[in-house]
Amino acid sequence: MLTKVRPVEMRGTIFSRLLLVTVLTLLFLSCPVQAAARYNGTWQSGSGGGKVKAIHYRSGKYRLIDLKSGKTLTVSSVKKGARLKKTAWKKKAAQLWTVKKNKNGTITFLSVKNKRYALSITKEKATLEKKSGAKSMSFAKETSAPRKAGAGGISSAANGVSQNGWLSVRGTQLVNEHGSPLVLHGMSSHGLQWYSNFTTSNAIGATAAYGANLFRVAMYTEENGYLSNKSGILEKLYDAVDAALSRNMYVIIDWHILSDFNPKTHQSEAKTFFNRVSAHYANTPGVLYEICNEPNGGTGWKEIKSYANAVIPVIRKNSPRSVIIVGTPTWSQDVDVAAADPLSYANVMYAFHFYAGTHGQWLRDKVSMALSKGAPVFVSEWGTSAADGNGGVYKSAANIWISFMKQHSLSWANWSLCDKSESSAALKPGANAENGIGEKELSASGKYVFSQF
Ligand code: DCB
């Protein structure tokens, strides 16, 4: 075996350089100027509104960046109520602040121009005010760490769209914009026509607090869904998708066929719909499209393929990079059949759905078969109940499915975020998700699923 050996004199040089770097780093870290950088970070005033990012300049002085515009807050005149300007960073005293620690743990930013004046931010404006204990002058550090199960908070996805960008499929694996594998986990809504009270930014944000980075918007086509109220349901859909995106979540737009059995039944409506929404979200990396939820009633892969070949180009024309999920025969179970005769498009995945109380090893075998043939699988719907949405909760059967999905790095969405009186519902009947979701709101299924994100 050949190993490259550096000449002895070079190793000496490297060693002394390393020593020098280490000594300099230690000196730098221990000097008082560096210690003053402890207020670096994002701060929010007690009155809500805009956030500022503090960046240490020198000697305990900070510049503050307005997070909406990315510009530096600048004092234009030192008087009470003077609006702050947002300008480019020019290292001027009018752009520098010192920090005063308050008793309640918050901090106040004092202008270097005159330390009796402080930064005040309300929902409406950023001004200079005479230093006081007012909420608008008391800033708390923003904590981005997701709240843990049971906390019931509202958050944004910690590993979502802003960190991962456009998704694509490499082999059978979903990868992010940098080519690293990414697994998405989250909830599916129930039918938008019935449960849009759980597709709000707060309700979806509550799932993010537990670690979810995906939300699926189930837009039924029949059963009083889209086809019977196009403009009304479309509005609900846009609201739900925007809500998920506002929480940094990836979001699936699901054309939820069910009682219509065969996706070809409403193919022309599907083309119109997907043309419209993919144009609307053309430059939006967070959106994925699921073009037919669960073909059933004997619909074969040939027909689904024909439908997919008609709908995919419509989406791709508007939004060429979007990942598209295609339903498979028998309520999206026969991924093995699709794998034997795959679609020719890139960045396409095959939908696989299961219900723990009904489906077992024989169905996992279909997934293994599909993956071994190189077909990418997305578990865009699964439940802890039986296939009718009731029965159970089948926790030990679900445990086996969860470890199977982990083993194969499969992304999933659980059915469903609603308070319907059925065991697959994640919330108890009558639950309100607007103030976060906690022990009080979660059903037995919800408790189980929310601890798995
Ligand atoms: C799927 C559907 C989904 C359905 C769930 C649970 O259907 F994608 O829409 O949700 O799985 O059955 C249920 C709701 C009910 C609602 C009903 C009709 O939970 O509240 O009343 O939809 O809108 C499946 C999946 C698998 C199988 C059968 C069905 N299977 N199915 O394997 O037999 O009959 O709907």
List the helices and strands and how they pair.
Layout: H1 8-30, H2 32-35, E1 41-45, E2 51-58, E3 61-66, E4 72-74, E5 82-83, E6 85-87, E7 97-101, E8 107-111, E9 114-121, E10 126-130, E11 139-141, H3 161-164, E12 168-170, E13 173-175, E14 185-189, H4 192-195, H5 201-208, E15 214-220, H6 230-246, E16 250-256, H7 267-280, E17 287-290, H8 301-318, E18 324-326, H9 329-332, H10 335-340, E19 348-355, H11 361-372, E20 377-383, H12 395-407, E21 412-417, H13 444-450
Parallel strand pairs: 14-15, 14-21, 15-16, 16-17, 17-18, 18-19, 19-20, 20-21
Antiparallel strand pairs: 1-2, 1-11, 2-3, 4-6, 5-10, 7-8, 8-9, 9-10, 12-13
The structure holds 2,4-dinitrophenyl-2-deoxy-2-fluoro-beta-D-cellobioside.
Write down the CATH class of the largest domain: Alpha Beta
Structural class: alpha/beta
CATH homologous superfamily caption of the largest domain: Glycosidases
What overall geometry do the principal axes of the alpha carbons give?
Answer: elongated
Strand order of the largest sheet: 14-15-16-17-18-19-20-21
CATH architecture of the largest domain: Alpha-Beta Barrel
Calculate Rg over CA atoms: 27 Å
Cα end-to-end separation: 46 Å
The unreliable regions are 1-12, 26-34, 146-150
- The overall number of domains is 2
- Percent of residues in helices comes to 25-40%
